[in-house]
Every structure is written in C-alpha cells, then in structure tokens.
Design goal:
Elements: H1 2-24, H2 27-53, E1 56-63, E2 74-83, E3 88-97, E4 103-107, E5 111-113, E6 118-126, E7 133-140, E8 145-151, E9 167-171, H3 178-181, E10 189-193, E11 211-216, H4 220-228, H5 230-241, E12 245-250, H6 255-258, E13 271-277, H7 282-287, E14 304-309, E15 314-319, E16 322-330, E17 333-338, H8 345-348, H9 353-361, H10 374-381, H11 386-394, H12 405-430, H13 437-457, E18 464-474, E19 479-490, E20 494-500, E21 513-518, E22 542-545, E23 550-556, E24 560-571, E25 577-584, E26 587-594, E27 600-607, E28 610-617, E29 622-624, E30 631-633, H14 634-639, E31 642-646, E32 653-657, H15 668-676, H16 684-687, H17 700-704, E33 708-714, E34 724-728, E35 737-749, E36 752-753
Parallel strand pairs: 4-22, 9-10, 9-11, 11-12, 12-17, 18-35, 25-36
Antiparallel strand pairs: 1-2, 2-6, 3-4, 3-5, 3-7, 7-8, 13-14, 15-16, 16-17, 18-19, 19-24, 20-23, 20-34, 21-24, 22-23, 25-26, 26-29, 27-28, 27-33, 28-30, 31-32, 33-35
Length: 759
C-alpha cells in the first residue's frame, strides 16, 4: 500500500510540474511577463531620469571687469550653472595657475541652485598667467561631480592685459567715441560696461582698474538697472573708499539716484538741490585749454548742470558761479563730480572730448610716451613697474647670503678653465707627465664640490621669513587699510601652511575684511607672471581660502623663496593721531600728536607743494608748527633736487641737480616712499618705472584734494608679533624664524582753512 501511495504522489507532482510548464507556454503568460518587464523598465527609467535631472551642468564663464584683468591681482569670476528637475547644492572649485605656474584651487561657499534654475556664482581668484587654463569643478553634496576646462583667449575669457596698461571703465548706456575704445596698451585700455548688474559685488574685484567713469544720462532703463544694482554700487563705493577713483556725471533726470537714499548719493560733493541750464560753455573749454568751442544745436536737449549746497571739495572748473568740476576726498579714494552730462550729444561730438576725459581721469597719453623706453629697464632689471621692484626687494633676506648670477657664471667659467686648459698646461709643460691627471682631476672636482658645499651652508639650515607692513589711516573717515608682504626662504623642499593675522597696533581693531594670496612679479621679465609657461599638471593643487587668511599645502622648492601678500580693511576704535591742523596762505599750521603705542621715526608731512620734517614722534608726543619750520619743496625732497650757483658776480648762474631714481635699489623703505608719492615725484618721467599695477597706492591725489599726508616708520621692537605664520608639513616647529620686520604708517589728515585773522 505504501508503494502505491508513493506512486500516486509522484504522479501528482509530475502532473503539477507539467501544468506549470504548460502555463508558462500559454500566450497569456507571455503577455503578463511583457507587461511586468515594461512596468519595471518604466519605473527604472523614471528613477534614472530623476537622478539625471538632479545633476548640474556648467554652462558658462566670465572673467574680469568687462572681461579685463591683470595677472596676480584679485579678479572676479562668474560661473554659470544650470540644474535639473530638482534642486542641487554643493561647492565650486576653481583651479588656476599661480605666479610660478603651479595649480592653486579656490573654493566657493555652499551654493544652492533651485530646480530648473540657471544662476551665476561669483568668486574672487588670482590668475598667475596671461593665457591661463581654468578648471571649474562642481562637487555636489550627494556625491555628483562634474568638471569643465576653459582656456584663456576667448571672448568670455580673454588673456590678461599687461601690468603697465592703465585700465578704465566707461559705465554708461551711451557708447563712448571710437577714439577712446580703440586705445590699447600704455595708451589706456577702455572697457564699456552697459549693464551695471554685471559689475562685481566685492571691492577687491576692481584692483585692475585705475578709474571708473559713470556717465548715467537720461536713459531710464539704465537708471532703473542702477537702482536694482544696490550691491554692485556698494562694492563700487567701497572700492573708491579704499583707494579707487570715480568720475561721476549724471543726467538731469537722475534725481532719484542722487537723493539721500539713492544708490549714488555718495558721489555728490554736497546736498543735491536740482539742476540749472547752462548758456555758455567757456568753463569747460578753458578746463581742457581748447581753442574749439562746444556747439549746441537747436534740436538738442538743454545743457544742464547739477547744483549742490554745502560743497565739500575743491572746485577745479566753474562757469561763473556754477561749479562744473568738483573733486573731493572719499576715504582713501577720490570722487570727481562733473556737474553737466558727459553723455550729452554736444560733448560726445565735440572734437576735444578725448582731452576732457583724459583731464577728468587724470591721465595723458602724451605724458606717457616715455613708456616706450621701458624695454631698456626690463632688460636690465627684469621688471618695468614699481611693484616688480618691491617684489624683487622682498627676496633679499638680511640673514641669508645670496650670490648674484654673474658671480655664479664667473665661478663656472673659472672651474671649466681650471679642469680643462689650465690642467692640461700644468701637466704638459710643468710636470711633463699627463698621468698625474688621474690625481689632479679628482682633486679639482673634490675641491669645487667642497667649496660649493661651504657656500651652500652660508644660506642657512632653517627656514627664514621677512615681513613688511604698510598701514594707511584715514583720520576723517576713521578707517584703515593695510598691505602686508612676506617672503619665505627654505633651504629644503617642503610644503607650508600660510596664515595671516592683523598687525598688533593700538588703533587697529579686528579686520573688517582680510584677503591673503601669493605675490608674483608683474611683467614678462625673468620670473615674471606674463611669461608664457605651461600649467604644471603634475603638481597637486594647493588650497586657498583668502577670506580666512589661509593657504594650505604651498610647495616651496629647495633654496628658493615664495612671497605672499595680504590686504585688509578695518575701522579704528581710537584715532591713531590727534590733529588740529589748518591751512594759512598755503602753509600748514597746527599740532599733530602720536596716539599709537609705538614710536614713529623719520616722520614727514606733505601738504600742497611742501614737505615738513617732524623727526621722531614718541607715543603721546606731538609736533607743533612754528615759524621757520624745517620745510622743503615736496618734489625736491622726493627726487633730491638741489639748487646751486656756479660762477661769481655777473657770471653767476643758477643750476639744478636732480638725484636720479635707482630702479635697482633693494631698500624697501626707499621703494615704498616712491610708490606713496609717485606722481608728486614726477611720475614715469623721473622714476623710469610705471605705477599702473597698484595705482591705488599712490597718495599724490590726496594732496590735490586738499589733504595733508604724513608718513612714518615704526621703530623696531622685539615685542612685535609677526602677522604671517608659516608651518612646514615635515616639522613640528610652531613658527618660522623672522629675519626682519618693517612697519610703515601713512596718515591722511583733513586740513581746515583759516584766514590770516584766525589764529
């Protein structure tokens, strides 16, 4: 019975298996299976489509203000990104070559892009080569990564302009005359920006710009764009406050921009009151010494000028009692307010319009014809700008002995002569036995090797740094701007973490903003950033977070130096100087007291055409002007001009002798003094080097604005703390030895005007 039951169960299982197999062979089964596969593929495809739509695409790039920038300066960069069907969040990484051609990466803050949104992300970077390669990389928070490479030379990403090229921005809806925009190189590079919303939102982005001309006419669309560009106008204002220059000219219908709450109210020299129609134009014609008149046609709009009350500034041109050109100090910068409308047809078609613009911006093409003689300076020194001389001087460390290249070349020549002809002559004609060369040749090699080793030991065995600080104080505005430079020398290859903090001076609080970057040599001389060298892809990029004052993994080669610079702005809690000075018939009078906790040596005050020697100011000590002060003509103090008499009696002749500027000097104080009063010393005609890389450093215009400028050198003190911190990756030392630290201060002092009856 059990066998029969097993046989029945086996038949039943076989029948069930056969029935299942027959079910798979039915047409309905194939249809059901196809529907299931289709549903699965649909769901899977929708899922993959969702991931694809949530990705982000890099679609565009803009570099520079109006596409113009200079190598080594802070440059604005806009990356255009587009997201998919869902929002994306992540960071942008920008990798560019530094001053030595190595890769340096800048990271943006977290960026959120909405679903199906296209937006621009603005960043500040340094580009160290004129035809650089920029690698843009997006790293999403969910792990998605995309990358795109751009090569300089296109319309959106042009090559950098040269360091000695003055850059001007024409911000207007009206196109400037062709004669202005076609200028290039040393004659000036003009940029036409039609949309103010495309301007940068950080003041450091204007470092390559010498002057901005804002010509807002009666174009209502352009004026509304300015009202929408509040953040861009604030950045423009901060740039002027920190050393920039603005020429402002607005049409009669721009009252909303000039009101108390208007975005351009800060450009007016007083309280805006309205406009007045001009019937005559002799004031403008005399301003540019033009023999040709301005012609106003019958169908032209009225030629009107803005009027302001309680003018605070220097009126340099007027039509009767109507001010036409008013220049004033704004922080550490200059605002020139041209009361008529620069974009008026009568001015645009005036054949002296170029001369008017050159006079307003303070630049003359004819004046800088001597720039063409600069290749001689380049061939001799390797740079054509004062900043290049400063950068080269920073490489000279007091405790490290560097030998000139000419010495090395002579030593190599002598070595070749000794092991070659001299050895042959001594053995052949002296000992008359050439077999001694088996002893003399190795001995000479060992001797040369030992000498090289001994000389190499004079360069030290530990890393050494040099630091220079320059601090500008604006006493009227209560703000400070600092520039800090440092050079790091290392006898062995290593990577460093570089950090920057503010100098510890009494009147300097925490930084409002600080930015740290590498410091390269401008120009195309030996080691200059304008050399066409490749991108060193073999090196790993180091990370730069300039707004935090940190550079990580910076590689420094053996027996070489790397230079860095930082810029910072702050607001003073206490005034660095207590002043009560006034102008009496062009002579500076009053009292200046040192309110810092450091001693200022070699203090000099420049005012007008005179320089006053103050000597040393101890903390709390003051200088008071008296009759017979030790004053000297400013230009004579800067260029060492001396007047002497040759001959006697009726044959006596007065002659002048000027001490030429030394472009090869490595005295940092000497170089910084010339940078601080470049135009007052005679400009390029005297210095033979341009000053277009950092035009904001020149304080000559402050004197024209009616300010007094005092400079002094902080007496070295062992208690001073270094602002730069260098930490090597392969050592446990907390800091690098500081070979020297130099601090210079410059003060912009407002001067009251008093008549002879006021004492």
């Amino acid at each position: 019975m059990r066998d029969i039951q097993r046989l029945i169960d086996g038949c039943a299982r076989e029948s069930s298996t056969r029935s299942h197999a027959q079910w798979w062979l039915r047409p309905q089964s194939f249809l059901s299976l196809g529907v299931a596969v289709w549903l699965w593929s649909l769901l899977g495809g929708w899922s993959f489509g969702e991931v694809e739509k949530s990705s982000l695409e890099i679609v565009g790039l803009r570099v520079g203000v109006g596409g113009v920038y200079k190598a080594g300066l802070w440059t604005p960069l806009w990356v255009q990104v587009r997201s998919g069907a869902t929002a994306a969040s992540g960071k942008l990484w920008i990798t560019v070559p530094d001053d030595e051609g190595g890769p340096c990466s800048f990271c943006s803050p977290s960026v959120v892009v909405g679903a199906d949104e296209t937006r621009e992300v603005e960043m500040l970077i340094q580009i160290g080569r004129p035809r650089a390669q920029v690698v843009v990389r997006w790293e999403s928070s969910d792990g998605f990564v995309t990358e795109k490479t751009y090569q300089a030379g296109s319309t959106a990403f042009a090559a950098a302009v040269t360091a000695r090229t003055p850059v001007f921005v024409w911000l207007s809806s009206t196109e400037p005359p062709l004669g202005l925009t076609t200028r290039r190189n040393e004659k000036g590079h003009w940029i036409w920006v039609k949309n103010p919303e495309q301007l940068p939102t950080h003041f450091l982005a204007y470092q390559s710009v010498r002057c901005v001309v804002l010509a807002a006419g009666n174009d209502q669309a352009f004026n509304r764009a300015i009202e929408r560009s509040r953040e861009q106008m604030l950045a423009l204002r901060d740039w002027v406050r920190n050393g920039g220059k603005l020429v402002a000219s607005l049409g009669p219908q721009c009252s909303t921009l000039l009101n108390n709450d208007g975005p351009l109210a800060w450009t007016t020299p007083g309280v805006w009151q309205g406009t007045i129609t001009l019937r005559r134009f002799s004031g403008i014609e005399s301003y540019v010494d033009s023999p040709r008149p301005i012609i106003l046609r019958r169908g032209d709009a009225p030629f009107q000028a803005h009027q302001c009350g309680n003018i605070d500034g220097v009126v340099t041109a007027r039509e009767g009692n109507i001010p036409l050109v008013v220049r004033r100090q704004f922080g550490l910068g200059t605002v020139i307010f041209f009361t008529p409308d620069l974009s008026h047809r009568a001015l645009l078609e005036w054949n002296q319009w170029d001369r008017l613009i050159d006079r307003l911006v303070g630049y003359s093409v004819v004046r800088d014809e001597s720039v063409h003689n600069q290749p001689r300076t380049l061939m001799h020194y390797g740079y054509v700008d004062l900043v290049g001389q400063l950068r080269s001087a920073l490489d000279v460390l007091p405790t490290i002995s560097f030998f000139p290249f000419s010495w090395v070349a002579v030593a190599v020549f002598v070595y070749l002569v000794v092991i070659g002809p001299l050895d042959y002559w001594l053995l052949g004609f002296g000992l008359r036995n050439y077999r001694w060369t088996w002893l003399s040749f190795p001995a000479m090699i060992l001797l040369a090797t030992g000498a090289s080793w001994i000389l190499g030991g004079t360069k030290g065995t530990e890393p050494v740094a040099r630091e220079v600080q320059w601090v500008d104080y604006d006493l009227a505005d209560g703000t400070a701007r600092g520039l800090a430079f440092a050079s790091l020398y290392t006898p062995r290859p290593d990577s460093y973490e570089v950090r920057f903090s503010l100098p510890q001076l009494k009147a300097t609080p925490d930084a409002h903003q600080k930015w740290l970057g590498w410091f390269g040599i401008p120009g195309h001389g030996l080691g200059g950033m304008e050399n066409v060298t490749g991108f060193l892809n073999s090196l790993e990029p180091y990370l730069a977070t300039p707004e935090e004052g940190v550079l990580k993994e910076v590689v420094v080669n053996q027996w070489s130096t790397r230079s860095f610079w930082a810029i910072w702005t702050a607001r003073n809690k206490t005034p660095p100087l207590v002043t009560d000075v006034f102008d009496r018939e062009g002579i500076l009078r009053g009292r200046i007291q040192n309110n810092l906790d450091v001693t200022l040596d070699n203090c000099v005050v420049a005012y007008g055409d005179w320089a006053y020697s103050l000597g040393t100011l101890e903390p709390g000590k003051s200088w008071e002007s008296v009759l017979g002060d030790d004053r000297r003509e400013l230009r004579s103090w800067l260029n060492g001009r001396q007047v002497f008499v040759e001959g006697e009696g009726v044959r006596a002749q007065t002659r002048q002798r000027v001490e030429p500027y030394d472009p090869g000097s490595r005295d940092v104080g000497y170089i910084l003094q010339m940078m601080a009063f470049y135009e007052a010393a005679g400009g390029i005609g005297y210095v033979d080097l341009s000053h277009e890389y950092w035009p904001f450093f020149d304080g000559s215009e402050w004197l024209t604005n009616g300010r007094a400028v005092m400079i002094g050198r902080v007496r070295p003190d062992s208690r001073q703390v270094s602002s730069f911190d260098f930490r090597a990756k392969t050592t446990d030392k907390d800091h690098t030895q500081l070979s020297s630290q130099e601090v210079f201060c410059r003060f912009v002092i407002p001067v009251a005007r008093k008549t002879s009856t006021n004492d």
